[in-house]
Amino acid sequence: MTTETATEANVDLVRRAFDAFNESDLDATLAFLTEDFAINIAGMPYQERGLEAWSRNFRTMHDAFPGIRADVHDIFGAGDKVTVRLTFSGKHTREFLGMAPTGREVEYTSIEIYRIEDGRLAEEWICSDTATLMRQLAGE
């Protein structure tokens, strides 16, 4: 496989993973990840690893914001990495990080980098605009 073809395949892999996320399909989403998937989130004091940790984060978002969507605006790859700029949007109808449901529609941006290994997502680095998310939940 040429480098260009491999890069295109990696970009397509990330797109399909976000399609599964948008379908709220945890099992389909997990199929895109390696067993020891590494989670790096800006501001977190430690790295999380594994499918159970990722599942917990998935459930946190989908439980608090049923039907949450991730709309990809930009996506490109180089080597074994794919970078995505996207917007998450949804309605806060259940508890989120101890915050009671507000019924508010939210929308925030995230920049994410994924490392691909043997045709699966092996690691992510996420830098989301959580300050905007929290301001919207607070009604500011």
TrEMBL record:
<dbReference type="InterPro" id="IPR032710">
    <property type="entry name" value="NTF2-like_dom_sf"/>
</dbReference>
<protein>
    <recommendedName>
        <fullName>SnoaL-like polyketide cyclase</fullName>
    </recommendedName>
</protein>
<dbReference type="GO" id="GO:0030638">
    <property type="term" value="P:polyketide metabolic process"/>
</dbReference>
<dbReference type="Pfam" id="PF07366">
    <property type="entry name" value="SnoaL"/>
</dbReference>
<dbReference type="InterPro" id="IPR009959">
    <property type="entry name" value="Cyclase_SnoaL-like"/>
</dbReference>
